[in-house]
Structure formats: C-alpha cells, structure tokens
Amino acid sequence: MYESFYKLQSRPFQLSPDPKFFYGSPGHKRAMSYLRYGLTQGEGFIVITGDIGTGKTMLVRTLFADLAKENVVAAQLVTTQLEADDTLRMVAASFGLAHEGLDKATLLKNLETFMNSRAREGKRVLLLVDEAQNLPPRSLEELRMLSNFQLGGKVLFQSFLLGQGEFRQTLQAQGMEQLRQRVIAAYHLDALDQEQTRAYIEHRLQTAEWKDDPSFSADAFAIIHEYSGGIPRRINTLCDRLLLFGSLEEVHQFDAAKVKAVIEELKQETAAPKVAAKPDAQAEPAPQTESAPPAATAKPTAKSAAKPAAAPAAAAPRGAAVVQAVKSVTAAQKPAPVAAQAVPQGDLEARIALLEKRVAVLEEGLRRERLRLRRAILLSDDFGSAS
What is the homologous superfamily of the domain 26-189 according to CATH? Predict the structure, then answer.
C-alpha cells in the first residue's frame, strides 16, 4: 500500500528474507566469508550462531542464491526437536530420497548411495541445518556420522549448522568432543550498532528505489535503534509499520515523536488485553462539594430525602437556576441508570466530571477505531503481498 505513496518499487522491510536486500555489515560479511570458506574446504562443519532475528536465515538465502554457480547439491533442514532416526529421515527427505517406513540401516544405505552418485558427477552434497539448537546430542551425533562417508579419500557430505546462542553451549557439553573436532569455522552474529542500524535502513530503502521520501531525522534513527536493539527483524517490523503509518497520515518526514507514536501502537497490539471493570454504583461514594457538610455522606432518611438541603443564601437564586438548567439538559440526554445512581441530582461538579469522563471514553473509542483501521489495512496489505 505505502509503496505507491512513497513511489517505492517494492516493500523494503518485508519480513521474508530476500537476498537482494542483504546488508553486509562487518559481522554479516565475516559470517558469509566463513560460509564460503567452508564451501572451498568441502568437509567438516561450519557453525553460525546469533540471537533471534539477527539475520542467519538471510545469510542462508544469500548463500543459496550463489550456489547455482557451484557444483553443490544443497538442501535445508529446519529442525524441531528431532530424535536420531527422525533426523536421518528428514535428511533423506530434504534430498528427495525415500524415507517413509524405512529402518535406520536402509536410510543410511540410501544416503550413501546418493552421495556416491553425486560425487561421480563431480558434485558435493551440502546440508544446511537451521535452528540447530533444537537438535538433541544423539541427532548431532548422527550428522557427524554422515560426515564419515568418503569416496576415494574424498569426504562426500558437509554440514552448515545455524542456531541461536545456546547452541554454543551445546557444542561445549560433555560428549561433543568428536563433533567439535569436525568444526572447521564458527562465528557468532551480534546485533547492529546505531550507525549500522541507520546504514541498514538506508540500504534497504535504496534497494527499493528510495528517493529520500520519506526522510528520517537523526533522532528518529536513534529511537529506532533503541527500540529494536539493532536486531534486523525488529528493525524491519518497526520500519514497515512506520511507512504504513506515514502513508495513512501523509507523513513525509519522520522525527522521534512520530517513531515513538508507532512504537506505542506496536506495544499496545502485543500487550495483554485489559479486563474492563463492571460498573458498580456502590463502589465509590459520590464526591462532595466544598459547601456540603460532612453529614451529607450518610445515608439519607425518608424525611431528609423528601426535603432537599438548603443551599447557601447568597448562591441560592443563581445556583438553583444552574441546577435546573443542568436537570433539563440531562433529562433530555437520558443518561444511563448507573450514572444517575452514582451522582446525586444536585451535584453540579460531579455531573461535569461525569460528562468529561464520557468525552474521554468517546475519544478512547475513536482512537481504538483508528488503530483497528490501521491493523485491517496492514493485514489486507500482507494478504495481498502473500497472494
């Protein structure tokens, strides 16, 4: 939606990884160098770790985009707590081999035959394992055993292991010594600093043919980095919403205040819903005016209820006229029964406070409707791009 408003050729901050938007920060360039080094070695394990959203999947997609030029048969495996035998089945399935209902010996034989065939064609077999921190030790051991397949002294199988930070602890655990000895390179991706965050945003905008519309102030970039922590995925989420907000509000320059407003919307969307309290007329006593005596808070008797208390002599004529006018207006508006019980008929200040509260409720309702509209537009935009 906002692409046409800002005259962009594509969505620069979409969440799905697209190699054309790859930003080579110093850390990402080094990680990519390690992956390419692993390709030249053709054996062992390359380990890349990083927190959620730091760009590990983008590295993979970018690398795979270049593998078409190499004699490499590559497959990707996204793990979900796979046991040893299930891991072998998933590896076989990733390379298009039969796996349903087969025992372990047959799976291993099929994999070895596949790797030998590719080697005779002058090709290497590469498995990229994403979310490797989910693999139990026995499954990692099965991957290590696959790296033992050789033909004419040449290793037939190589693995790249991508995982979150805790995977480094898994590798250091007892019993992982043999796997550690097969790791030929390892690198941990860190978050972007403030300057890199700005360069990342501008790079993705420029890739989408950005013409400095919208523009960003220096403090806007600072707030984006503070909120995102320099995590690329969080930067994408915030900036995508910023551009949507800007197109709806016709904003062509983002400053810190506008960025904070969008951040507040995002926080409200992910916050737990508040449970509205049921109105209770007896929950709070009616507020007193300064002229009301302390005894006014006591429960009125039948006699006192029949005869209202006298107002001060000096304010009686004007006060009575004001009260009568308020009665006429409120009677015409037919207030809710709960409000009528909660506020005494003669309490002008309480009625004004009640009206102000009603206005605040209406304003809050309007704000929520605007937020719902933005969500609906965003969902419509996402569905449109997905289709």
Answer: P-loop containing nucleotide triphosphate hydrolases (3.40.50.300)
DSSP 8-state assignment for residue 282: T
CB atoms under 10 Å from CB of 209, counted, come to: 13
Q: Matching CATH topology for 26-189 and 194-271?
A: no
Burial level of 57, CB count in 10 A (0-12/13-18/19+)?
A: middle
pTM of the model: 0.68
Cβ count near 125 (within 10 Å)? 24
Instruction: Write down the domain spans for the chain.
Output: 26-189, 194-271, 333-387
The tens digit of pLDDT for each residue in 298-320 reads 444 444 444 444 444 444 444 44
pLDDT at 383: 52
| Eight-state DSSP code of residue 107 | H
The runs of H, that is alpha helices, within 186-291 are: 194-207, 218-228, 232-249, 256-270
Question: How far apart are alpha carbons 278 and 271 in whole angstroms?
Answer: 21
Q: Computed from CA positions of residues 277, 278, 284, 289, in that sequence, does the dihedral angle turn out positive or negative? A: positive
Per-residue pLDDT, 198:
97
Eight-class DSSP state of 19: G
Burial 20-51 (b: 16+ CB within 10 A, else e): ebbbebebbeebbebbeebbeeebebbbbbbe
CB 167 within 8 A of CB 49: yes
Residue 189 Cα to chain centre, angstroms: 19
The alpha-helical segments, DSSP class H, found in the chain are 2-6, 26-41, 56-67, 84-94, 104-120, 137-146, 166-171, 177-182, 194-207, 218-228, 232-249, 256-270, 302-306, 316-333, 337-342, 348-386
Does the structure show a pLDDT above 80 at 43? yes
Indicate the range of 126-140, 172-186, 229-243, 339-353 predicted with least confidence: 339-353
> Which has more confidence, 359 or 371?
359
Measure the CA–CA gap between 5 and 243, rounded to whole angstroms. Answer: 9
| 194-271 CATH pick, 1.10.8, 1.10.600, 1.10.1660, 3.40.50 | 1.10.8
79 close to 39: Cβ distance less than 8 angstroms: no
Residue 324 CB partners (closer than 8 Å, separation 6+): none
